[in-house]
């Protein structure tokens, strides 16, 4: 485990800011994958149902929405349970296992993280995603990825 654990205050900050993001969760989730595929086009090919949809049409695709809705629910469950590390670890072991079977390049998780934090900055505002909140989210994402990667080892 490389990631540091989160303090109660950091968990509170992450939960409160995720409540804001969730209000426009469909847009956030779709934009996350559009930004991810724009920056790293090869990863779109990992998604069988999305691989052949041109980027310009992805935003209005119900297939993308179906996928991002699942990812957003998964992220919400993780955020909701941040104060119970054992539950989070169990959830991520499953996510890690499902993703390992897909033969993904493990670096994709770090690359998605960069896109995720950039999008959080856009969604919340650079003045809101300040030092403390940014640090709390970086720790949260690192924790998620560290546990997913365990399944790849
Ligand atoms: C924090 C990171 C991530 C979370 C929480 C997450 C979560 C999920 C969830 C909940 C699903 C649907 C349920 C399932 O089939 O397992 C899914 C599917 C999938 N994920 Fe991820 N994912 C993450 C990162 C990634 C990354 C970096 C990739 C790399 C390209 C990826 C590739 C896929 C693929 C290919 C599918 C199957 C899509 C389909 O054909 O339906 N995921 N993910």
From TrEMBL:
PROSITE patterns: GLOBIN. Keywords: Heme, Iron, Metal-binding, Oxygen transport, Transport. It comes from the Eukaryota. Residues 5-153 form the Globin domain. Pfam families: Globin (PF00042). InterPro entries: Globin, Globin-like_sf, Globin/Proto, Mb-like_M. GO terms for molecular function: heme binding; metal ion binding; oxygen binding; oxygen carrier activity. CDD domains: Mb-like. Belongs to the globin family. This is Globin domain-containing protein. The lineage of its organism: Eukaryota, Metazoa, Ecdysozoa, Arthropoda, Chelicerata.
């Amino acid at each position: 485990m490389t990631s540091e654990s989160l303090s109660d205050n950091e968990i509170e900050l992450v939960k409160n800011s995720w409540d804001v993001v969730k209000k426009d969760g469909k847009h956030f989730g779709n934009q996350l994958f559009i930004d991810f595929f724009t920056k790293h086009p090869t990863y779109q090919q990992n998604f069988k149902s999305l691989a052949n949809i041109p980027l310009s049409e992805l935003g209005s695709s119900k297939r993308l929405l179906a996928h991002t809705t699942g990812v957003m629910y998964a992220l919400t469950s993780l955020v909701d349970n941040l104060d119970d590390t054992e539950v989070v670890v169990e959830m991520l072991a499953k996510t890690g296992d499902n993703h390992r079977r897909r033969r993904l390049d493990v670096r994709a998780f770090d690359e998605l993280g960069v896109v995720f934090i950039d999008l959080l900055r856009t969604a919340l505002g650079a003045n809101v995603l300040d030092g403390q909140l940014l640090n709390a989210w970086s720790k949260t994402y690192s924790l998620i990825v560290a546990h997913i990667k365990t399944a790849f080892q």
